[in-house]
């Protein structure tokens, strides 16, 4: 009774694609955030310690940016490990969504932004097939996060 719309084959290829990114979790996580903050400067407003940083170079060097990039990648990694178990998957996504909705008050559109940047980076580094096999996963993640936001009254 899975809430996930991914076949076993899709789960396997998504995991393979993600592994390539996760090998360099800190670097890739940092690259994703730096790109988000640079291309969507309003997203910086949620992070008090990144607010004053304007140059990508400065952000790349920031321990806070690196730390949060790694956090984002670990969370996604946990989700990817549980794509074939919707209960475990939701056990990871639900508290994360609740925290971002209620405590951090992050606009849910930012999840789509960050997922799109991850897909962009995947395509640049590993090609279109890699990106394509992970796209369904990012859609699952964003759909579930949006549902949690709705439950929290967004």
TrEMBL record:
Protein keywords: Heme, Iron, Metal-binding, Oxygen transport, Transport
Positions of the Globin domain: 5-150
Keyword Heme: yes
Keyword Heme set for record: yes
Gene Ontology molecular functions: heme binding; iron ion binding; oxygen binding; oxygen carrier activity; superoxide dismutase activity
Reactions catalysed, as given in the entry: Fe(II)-heme b-[protein] + nitric oxide + O2 = Fe(III)-heme b-[protein] + nitrate; 2 superoxide + 2 H(+) = H2O2 + O2; Fe(III)-heme b-[protein] + nitric oxide + H2O = Fe(II)-heme b-[protein] + nitrite + 2 H(+); H2O2 + AH2 = A + 2 H2O
EC number: 1.15.1.1
UniProt superkingdom: Eukaryota
Function text: Involved in oxygen transport from the lung to the various peripheral tissues.
Entry similarity comment: Belongs to the globin family.
PANTHER family for this protein: CYTOGLOBIN (PTHR46783), GLOBIN FAMILY PROFILE DOMAIN-CONTAINING PROTEIN (PTHR46783:SF3)
Descriptive protein name: superoxide dismutase
Higher taxonomy: Eukaryota, Metazoa, Chordata, Craniata, Vertebrata
Record gene name: Cygb1
